Amino acid sequence: MWSFVPVDNAFVGDGMMRQFAVIGLGKFGASVACTLAGLGYQVLAVDIDEDKVQRVADEVTHAVQADATDEDILKAIGIRNFDVVVVTIGHDVLSSILTCLILKDLGVAFVVGKATDELHGKLLEKIGVEKVVYPERDMGVRLANTLTSSNILEIIELSPDYGVAEISASSELIGKTLRDLNLRARFGVNIVAIRRTDNEVQVSPGPDDIIKEGDVLLALGATDSLGRLENAK
């Protein structure tokens, strides 16, 4: 059985905006779905557990209680029309693999699969999943990097791959302009704000703004790039 959970915003196709479906609404899946919705994307959230569906129903565009291992159900909810489908079923490896296999057979353009370990990930890759993520492993790596980095004050994860970090300006950054540092080209990191020692916050700093001693940079980018930013010279 499957059923739609009513939400305020009806799902409406928009060819100009990428549409996401998230299958599996555990902590990680719910976080992905709600974050994407918060960023303004249209998101369909799917889980076989009605309680999990209800918990995200007010946050996403559309929420569906459904068994994702049933090909007919996936066809009925129009899953093949989504640009990206994220499968975050982690506790049941067989269901994860079967769901991803059905999605590929249905012609979904881009499938992201959550893997619990290397073997799970290799199986997902074998059946054609475009991107495999290891949230538990990667979170551990990011935490270790953060704990050993004296310059990173805090990282807020926006998605499994991207985040916003507060970074204390190192001696290698002080006295240089953002143009000199060229952080976007070198690291793919954007400085969206600078907090000065007097707590004044400069939003959207320009290329000629100079990094001063005691500055805290608010940086947006891939989480691994944010971790490397402390070594920028």
Secondary structure: elements and pairs:
Blueprint: E1 3-5, E2 19-23, H1 27-38, E3 42-47, H2 50-56, E4 62-65, H3 71-76, E5 84-87, H4 93-105, E6 110-114, H5 118-126, E7 131-133, H6 135-147, E8 152-157, E9 162-168, H7 178-181, H8 183-187, E10 190-195, E11 201-203, E12 216-222, H9 223-228
Parallel strand pairs: 2-3, 2-5, 3-4, 5-6, 6-7
Antiparallel strand pairs: 1-4, 8-9, 9-12, 10-11, 10-12
Mean pLDDT: 82
Q: Extract low-pLDDT stretches.
A: 1-16
- Order of helix and strand elements from N to C terminus: EEHEHEHEHEHEHEEHHEEEH
| Helical content band | 25-40%
Tell me the number of strands.
12
Number of helices: 9
- Structural class computed from helices and strand pairing: alpha/beta
The biggest sheet amounts to:
7 strands, mixed
Shape: elongated
Q: What would you report as the Rg, rounded to the nearest angstrom?
A: 20 Å
With strands numbered from the N-terminus, the spatial order across the biggest sheet is 1-4-3-2-5-6-7
The share of residues in extended strands comes to 25-35%
Distance between the termini: 58 Å
State the gist of this model.
With 233 residues, the protein is an alpha/beta fold.
Question: What features would you describe in this structure?
Answer:
The chain is α/β, with parallel strands linked by helices and 233 residues long. Helix content is 32%, strand content 25%. It is built from 9 helices and 12 strands. The protein has a 7-stranded mixed sheet, sandwiched between helices. A 5-stranded antiparallel sheet has the order 8-9-12-10-11. A hairpin with a 5-residue loop joins strand 10 and strand 11. The longest helix is centred in the middle third of the chain and has 13 residues. The chain is elongated. The chain starts with a strand and ends in a 5-residue tail after the last helix.
